[in-house]
Write a structure and sequence with these properties.
The chain is α+β, with helices and mostly antiparallel strands. It has 12 helices and 7 strands. It has helices at residues 5-16, 27-33, 47-60, 62-65, 68-90, 100-111, 120-129, 148-155, 164-183, 188-195, 217-225, 255-283; strands spanning 36-40, 43-46, 135-145, 206-211, 236-238, 241-252, 288-290. The strands form 2 sheets. Strands 4-3-6-5 form a 4-stranded antiparallel β-sheet.
């Protein structure tokens, strides 16, 4: 499925931009917060507004957003907000809404309204030309836990508990051993039943059918990357521990059962395109000036 670009940008607008400052700051703190780190068409973008959004982003993807390009992306999102706000103000929407975010919300509600009428032919045609978006797989897995839960288990009766590094090493070695046995042809269901530390071990590791993105990302990506039924993955690391995944079936969800989902996907795409057009319109003549020296040392 395509990522929900429209939703993620709107969440930024409605929850991360607080341009109205409340409370008192000391003189030094206020001066630092008011440092101008960029300008868009002469409008200032301040350090404290950047930091709020940056802190959210960097927690999610630290490797990406600690780079100059990542920080530029954050500034660009704030610049887009500023230009959307200016557009809303130019249209007189501040007559009813005094808060910037509410003004931008009203602008989006008025401008991002694609036609919601879809006929049966349109929906079915989209389904037939995007079948890969509606596939689901069935898989089994063998889990070797790591983390606090495994630490507690392995610490019982021991004067000195193992470290997380020691647990990782032990569990990885177990995973390697079982993977080798599975690839030599041993029954995966029996191996899962005997060695998996997840709740599905009683079902031979069977997870049932699931769609892309339903599981944790690393697991889902690895499972959907398996090509043929019977294929077994390499060892996959997630926040739960180490996994070995076996693909047991792959199918396209029948049209009749997901018609409403297909319709929703079409309308989502229309909203995304309409929103993109609105942002392109307000940004086409915008000039953004960046002062990266103000943010380059942020971690």
């Amino acid at each position: 499925m395509k990522k929900l670009i429209f939703i993620s940008v709107c969440l930024f607008i409605f929850s991360s931009c607080d341009f109205f400052k409340k409370g008192q700051k000391d003189e030094k703190g206020q001066a630092e917060a008011k440092q101008v780190i960029a300008k868009v068409n002469g409008m200032n973008i301040y350090l404290d507004d950047f930091v709020k959004k940056y802190n959210v982003k960097v927690r999610q993807q630290p490797e990406k957003y600690k780079t100059k390009e990542g920080k530029k992306e954050v500034i660009d999102e704030i610049a887009q907000f500023q230009m959307l706000y200016k557009k809303a103000k130019d249209l007189g929407l501040d007559d009813d809404y005094q808060v910037k975010t509410m003004m931008v919300r009203k602008l989006i509600n008025e401008k991002v309204q694609p036609d919601n009428s879809l006929n049966e032919e349109e929906i079915e045609n989209y389904y037939n030309t995007h079948k890969d978006d509606f596939q689901e797989i069935r898989a089994s897995h063998i889990l070797f836990k790591t983390g606090p839960a495994k630490l507690q288990e392995m610490s019982k009766g021991k004067a000195t508990p193992p470290t997380f590094e020691e647990i990782d090493r032990v569990q990885l070695e177990k995973a390697k051993e079982i993977l080798a046995r599975a690839r030599k042809g041993e029954d995966f269901t029996k191996l899962a039943n005997q060695y998996s530390e997840g709740p599905t071990n009683v079902k031979g590791g069977d997870l049932g059918y699931f769609t892309q993105g339903r599981m944790i990302k690393e697991f889902s990506d690895a499972a959907f990357a398996l090509k043929a039924v019977g294929d077994i993955s390499d060892i996959i690391r997630t926040s739960y521990g180490y996994h070995i995944i076996k693909l047991t079936d792959r199918r396209i969800q029948p049209y009749i059962s997901i018609k409403a989902l297909v319709r929703s996907e079409i309308l989502k795409n229309k909203r995304e395109e309409s929103y993109k057009q609105l942002v392109d319109d307000v940004m086409k003549d915008a000039k953004v000036t960046y002062y990266f020296d103000k943010v380059e040392n942020l971690e």
